[in-house]
Each structure stands twice: as structure tokens, then as C-alpha cells.
Design a protein that fits this description.
This protein is mainly alpha-helical. It contains 19 helices and no strands. The longest helix is centred in the last third of the chain and has 58 residues. The radius of gyration is 30 Å and the shape is globular.
């Protein structure tokens, strides 16, 4: 657990400065908003909301100021831990060359993709070059302040190895297994936490759904307006979903599938084009069905979003191809490294033999790489296009390490074996993540169906109770036996139904996004899940409309 003293040290800000620059303005702003809320929205809010909302605003402001230093440090720790497998592989690759250790630290500190870990390396390099501190001492000093325990332990072992004169390459060879095992423990713990968050998410959403039932039914019995209470409860459910999605994003391993290179391959251009057409088609179809046809709003919206499944389907197929390429990448890089060590020469010459092997879905990309290398125009661009065509962040990162290790004078076979072994370790960890995502998918489908059925059952009960207890004021008076319970009833059930449908569609979007957060894929690939969840909501809403009259014999 990170204490506040360490938190403020990592933030490079003393407590007094933090309170004056961040704490006081945030709390003062929340107080101003809280004071203005009754005047600005008092006419639209029930009496209880005019005091509850300001209290909630001030509470969240104070809690945010108190927790921000700890959350910032925890976020930095997660960023360092998530960069460790790539950093350790890169460091192991460079250790096979004869480069000075300080130069290796400098090179790695310039890698922007390492984020917070690169900042720690820059601190070490600055202590050595600017403050003339010995490298082992600088590593120990940085290890005392880093929020990552895994990285701190590694720096301590590295300092000890340098002081005892241990061979750097031999040390890194042993550390690969040690640090990757520690990273695997952190990764698996994060996946286990996702399972826990899944249970919390289910409990929260179902509690919100039943709270919505009370918000619908209670005003009918008390004479108050159910629309206001229902909108407040729906807003609470939406807020809790967004909060849980944010917490899930903070806790899941930042092990992305797609690369972030600026190169647009024909495959990626085609995917973007299909997604654009799907989005335009969905927008046009939704506008036509909602405004120009007599279809119920629920069916109009569900049918309108359906074209999005087309673009999402092609993105999902692309993700499957990326995963299969990654499965074959370890064999390719190991074969290339072994061939370079055995035959010597340039990568271009060895590729003529390596490309004859079957690497599954990676074979076509390997052939394209060989063709570009034989043109002798730009070898770096050829490797960049190889990584871009794979679509994989993992392939992109490890390919850069391989080329850099070879250029630095490292042994090709050793470099290939280090990269291959760590690629296999990462892919094995991802299998557990994909399994968790599969169970999470089933949970979301069942939860959405239950939530839709419960909410629309409440809307139906609202209509039934309204007909039973309403005072008609005209020809049809209330049954004398019900006269003591009769109340004024003026509620737009269509409006409430539309609000529930809107909530369910927003819930479906958030649920599909959370599903992709769990499996590490892209948001567009979750669009088919969005469409399925939307249709589940509409189907269960229709089922509740069909079941309720028969249950009450209406």
C-alpha cells in the first residue's frame, strides 16, 4: 500500500502545494456548484434532490482530492508493471551486445512506449551523468522511490550483480524467467480481480434495476410523480456503470492487441471504410425508422443500430487473424535468428531460406517482407510494413527489438530465443484473459436480459396500478372499496418506456466496451455484442408486455 508521503514524493509536489493548487480550487468549485444547483434546477427537481445533489457534489470533490495522490501513484505502478515484459525483453536483447550498461539505460529511457518506466530510467541515467553517481548506487536510489515492487526488486538485483562483477548477459538470461514469472503473477491477479469486478457489476446493476421498480411503483401509491424519481434512478444506474467501467479500465492489464503505428495498410483502410459505411447506414436507418415509421421506439432503435454489426464483424475477424499471426510469430523470429547465426550474412540473404517455411497466417506477410528487402530501398521501412501488416502491437514491439539487437552486435540466435520465449509467455497469459472475457460475455448477455425484463415489468405494473387506483373524474368512478386509495394519476408511460429503452441502449454500449477492455481488443470489434445486447433488451421488453396482461388477467 502506497502511503501519502511516498505519493507526494512521486508527484514531485509537497502536501501544502498540492492542497493550495489542487485541493482548495476543487473543493471551492464544488461548493459553488452545490450552492447554484437549487437556484438553477430547483424548479425541475423534487425537494429531496435539491439538498442531496449538492451534498453529493461536495462529497465527491473532497474524496477526489483525498484519493487523487494515491490513485495517481497506483496508475504509475500499473503502467510500469505493464511495460515490464517488453522492457525486460529489450534489455535482455541489448545485453547480448557489447554496449556499455549506461548507454543501454539511455537507449531504453528514450522509448516513449515505456511511459512511466522510461521516466524511472531517465532518473537513473540523470543520476549517473549529471550527479556522477555510480550506476549500482543510482539503481538502488531509484528502487527506493519507484511504486512498482517488481521493478524495485529487479533494480536491487541489478545493482548487486554490477557490484559483484557478474556478467551482464548471464545476469539478464537468468532475470528473464524471474521477472516474467513475477509479471505473470501480477497479470493473473489482475484477471482474478476482473472476476471480482464482474460480481460487483452484476450486483450493482441488478440492485439498480430493483431500485427502479420501487421508483416506478412507490409514487403511484403516494401520489408523487414517478417520472422524476425514475429519471433519478436511471441516472444513478448510468453513473454506477460509468464508474465501474472506469475502475475496470484501471485494473485490467494494459496489454493491447492492435498496434498504434501511423502506417495505413490496405486491410486497415478497408476496415475503416466498412466501419464508416456501417455507422452511416445505422444513423440513416435509425432516423428513418424513428421519425418516419409507426414502429415502436424500441424496435426502431434496435433495427437502426443493427448495421453496426457488419463493421464490428469484420473488425472481429481481423482480430482473430492478428491472434493467429501472433501464435506463429515466435516460430518465425526464432527460425530467423537461428538461420542468421548459422549462415551469417545479412537478414536479406537469410530470408530467402526462411520464407520457404510455413508460418500459417504469417506466411504472406513474411513473403511481402522478403520482397521489400530485396528491393534494397529502405530496410527499416520494410520491417515497419511487416509489423503494420501483422496488425499486432506485440509483433511491432518485438520486431523493433530484434532489429535493434542485431544492429547493436548481439548474437542473432540469442536474440531470437529471448524474444521467442517471452512472446510465448505473454501469449500464454493472454489465453487466461480471453477465457475470462468469454465468461464475462455470457454474464453480460444474461444480466442485460434480466435488467430489461425487470425494468419493463415495472413499467407494465405502473400502468396496471395507474388504471386500478386512478380517479377518472368522469363517468367511470373508482370502485367504492378502492376509494380510500384513489390518487391523481397523470403519467406518460410512453415517455418512461422510451427512457428505459435509452438506458438499456447506453448500458449495451458500455457493456460492449467493457467486454473489449477485458479481452484487450478494439472497441469497433465489440459492435456485434452491442447489437445483440440491444436486441436482447427489446425482446425481453416485448416479452414483459406479453406476459404481464396474462398474469394480471387483463
Amino acid at each position: 500500500m502506497v502511503d501519502y508521503q511516498q505519493a507526494f514524493r512521486l508527484l514531485n509536489m509537497p502536501p501544502r502545494q498540492y492542497i493550495l493548487k489542487i485541493g482548495v480550487p476543487a473543493v471551492a468549485g464544488s461548493i459553488v456548484l452545490a450552492a447554484a444547483t437549487p437556484f438553477a434546477f430547483g424548479a425541475f427537481l423534487p425537494p429531496w434532490a435539491t439538498w442531496l445533489i449538492p451534498v453529493v457534489l461536495v462529497f465527491f470533490a473532497v474524496a477526489g482530492v483525498a484519493l487523487y495522490p494515491l490513485t495517481a501513484v497506483d496508475r504509475k505502478r500499473l503502467e510500469i508493471d505493464n511495460s515490464l515484459p517488453f522492457f525486460m525483453t529489450h534489455l535482455g536483447v541489448l545485453s547480448t551486445s557489447n554496449m556499455p550498461r549506461t548507454e543501454v539505460i539511455r537507449m531504453l529511457s528514450e522509448r516513449r512506449e515505456y511511459g512511466a518506466l522510461a521516466e524511472e530510467l531517465r532518473r537513473i541515467h540523470g543520476l549517473v551523468t549529471d550527479w556522477k553517481m555510480a550506476l549500482p548506487e543510482a539503481c538502488r536510489f531509484a528502487g527506493l522511490s519507484t511504486p512498482s515492487q517488481i521493478f524495485a526488486d529487479f533494480l536491487e538485483r541489478l545493482a548487486h550483480a554490477m557490484e559483484t562483477g557478474q556478467d551482464f548477459e548471464a545476469f539478464m538470461e537468468a532475470e528473464q524467467a524471474v521477472v516474467m514469472k513475477e509479471y505473470a503473477t501480477v497479470y493473473e491477479t489482475a484477471i482474478y480481480q476482473v472476476e471480482s469486478w464482474k460480481d460487483i457489476y452484476m450486483s450493482t446493476i441488478m440492485s439498480g434495476a430493483f431500485l427502479a421498480i420501487f421508483a416506478i411503483i412507490t409514487p403511484v401509491l403516494t401520489g408523487s410523480n414517478p417520472e422524476t424519481m425514475l429519471l433519478a434512478v436511471l441516472g444513478f444506474i448510468l453513473f454506477m456503470e460509468i464508474l465501474l467501467a472506469f475502475l475496470l479500465r484501471m485494473r485490467t492489464p494494459a496489454d493491447q492487441l492492435w498496434h498504434q503505428m501511423p502506417i495505413l495498410t490496405p486491410e486497415k483502410k478497408g476496415l475503416r471504410r466498412i466501419l464508416l459505411y456501417s455507422a452511416l447506414g445505422a444513423a440513416a436507418l435509425t432516423a428513418v425508422l424513428v421519425f418516419l415509421t409507426p414502429l415502436p421506439t424500441s424496435f426502431a432503435l434496435a433495427t437502426g443500430v443493427s448495421p453496426l454489426a457488419v463493421g464490428g464483424y469484420y473488425y472481429g475477424q481481423a482480430e482473430d487473424r492478428i491472434k493467429r499471426r501472433e501464435d506463429n510469430y515466435a516460430a518465425f523470429i526464432r527460425s530467423l535468428g537461428s538461420s542468421l547465426a548459422a549462415k551469417g550474412g545479412s537478414v536479406r540473404e537469410v530470408m530467402s531460406q526462411v520464407k520457404t517455411h510455413n508460418f500459417g497466417p504469417l506466411t504472406g506477410i513474411v513473403n511481402n517482407l522478403y520482397s521489400r528487402l530485396t528491393w534494397r530501398l529502405n530496410d527499416k521501412a520494410a520491417w515497419d510494413w511487416f509489423a503494420a501488416e501483422s496488425g499486432s502491437h506485440l509483433v511491432n514491439s518485438f520486431t523493433e527489438m530484434f532489429i535493434e539487437g542485431i544492429k547493436s552486435g548481439g548474437g542473432a540466435d540469442k536474440v531470437g530465443n529471448i524474444i521467442s520465449a517471452n512472446v510465448v509467455r505473454i501469449l500464454n497469459l493472454r489465453k487466461a484473459r480471453y477465457s475470462t472475457a468469454g465468461t464475462f460475455r455470457g454474464t453480460l448477455f444474461g444480466l442485460t436480459g434480466s435488467m430489461a425484463f425487470v425494468l419493463f415489468l415495472g413499467v407494465g405494473i405502473l400502468g396496471v396500478l395507474g388504471e386500478i387506483f386512478a380517479v377518472s373524474g368522469g363517468e367511470g368512478e373508482v370502485d367504492p372499496e378502492l376509494q380510500p386509495f384513489a390518487i391523481d394519476f397523470d403519467v406518460d408511460l410512453d415517455f418512461i418506456g422510451d427512457m428505459v429503452i435509452l438506458l438499456l441502449i447506453i448500458h449495451s454500449f458500455l457493456a460492449a466496451s467493457m467486454l473489449k477492455l477485458v479481452d484487450g481488443g478494439s472497441i469497433p470489434a465489440g459492435l456485434p455484442a452491442l447489437v445483440v445486447l440491444t436486441w436482447i433488451s427489446v425482446a425481453l421488453a416485448t416479452a414483459s408486455d406479453y406476459i404481464l396482461p396474462r398474469v394480471f388477467n387483463l
